[in-house]
Design brief:
Strand order of the largest sheet: 3-2-1-4-5-6-7-8
CATH topology: Rossmann fold
Helix content: 40-55%
Number of helices: 7
CATH class: Alpha Beta
Bound molecules: NADP nicotinamide-adenine-dinucleotide phosphate
Number of strands: 8
Largest sheet: 8 strands, mixed
Strand content: 5-15%
CATH architecture: 3-Layer(aba) Sandwich
Structural class: alpha/beta
Oligomer: single chain
């Protein structure tokens, strides 16, 4: 039986490369994309490269879209082996300073801007996970990989020798800390099942998220998620990894 993997936000960047990596490993990849045309173009590229890829239109912030995606996967495949919660956004700090001086947080983001980040990175991730969980429970060995970030690590952000010490920001890093706690909570809930739930950090990767300023290629950034999606029964759960190994929470 072919294994089925859904990757959210897979039309570009790291998500696209996660889809390519899992396609190369023999998975049927479901390319989650909020925009049908952008998603179809990603599916075309993956199909042309010889992979079994299909579009699943999915805006993680839209409950109707999430429910329709789960229904479609149930009808087409009856189960889901791998869910990679990759879709994410960042809003540059300082951008909202001019808008409403009374409403911005210390990092220069307005509460509205921080809420927008949480809608995708946190609430969207929970919404998709809850919708897909019944299908993942039907798989023999379900895997959930949440794409977090080192900037959400308490240990690294409070380490004065870490590059993250100088980062003071309330939107994106806080959302990724929440992603890590969400990983822990689902992993505990699913402790006595074959399902494993882990967080990964791709590393600083050149994508639209950071104006292509990252050091790694999207293919390199995708590697850790591709690996964690395929761990065996003796693999970890409730842990946080980058490409080099385990990360502190
Ligand atoms: N790049 C880095 O250095 C880095 C480092 C650590 C962690 N990460 C994480 O890696 C993940 C992928 O980011 P990336 O760097 O590859 O950025 P990216 O190139 O901007 O890709 C983000 C993806 O998320 C999708 N997305 C955004 N909002 C969505 C929504 N409401 N519903 C569904 N999809 C949505 C985007 O779709 P559209 O094309 O429609 O906008 C796009 O496919 C994110 O979770 C990010 O936080 C990135």
């Amino acid at each position: 039986m072919t294994s089925i993997a859904l990757i959210t936000g897979a039309n570009k960047g790291i998500g696209y490369e996660i889809a390519r990596g899992l396609g190369a490993a023999g998975y049927t990849v479901l390319v989650g994309a909020r925009d049908g045309a952008r998603g179809a173009s990603a599916v075309d590229s993956l199909t042309s490269a010889g992979f079994d890829a299909h579009l699943v239109q999915l805006d993680v912030t839209d409950p109707a879209s999430v429910a329709a995606a789960a229904k479609h996967i149930e009808h087409a495949y009856a189960h889901l082996d791998v869910l990679v919660n990759n879709a994410g956004i960042a809003r540059p700090d300082g951008d909202d300073r001019a808008l409403d001086p009374a409403a911005w947080a210390p990092s220069g983001q307005s509460l509205d801007s921080i809420r927008a980040v949480f809608e995708v990175n946190v609430f969207g991730l929970i919404s998709v996970t809850n919708a897909m969980l019944p299908l993942i429970r039907r798989a023999p060995a379900g895997r959930i990989v949440n794409v977090a970030s080192e900037v959400g690590s308490f240990a690294l952000t409070l380490d004065q020798s870490s590059p993250y010490w100088s980062l003071v920001s309330l939107g994106y890093p806080v959302s990724k800390t929440a992603v890590n706690m969400i990983t822990a909570q689902y992993a505990k809930e699913l402790w006595d099942t074959p399902i494993k739930v882990n967080s990964v950090c791709p590393g600083y990767t050149a994508t639209d998220l950071n104006g292509m300023s990252g050091f790694k290629t999207p293919e390199e950034g995708a590697r850790v998620a591709v690996r964690l999606a395929q761990i065996g029964a003796d693999g970890p759960t409730a842990q946080f990894f980058n490409e080099a190994g385990p990360l502190p929470w």
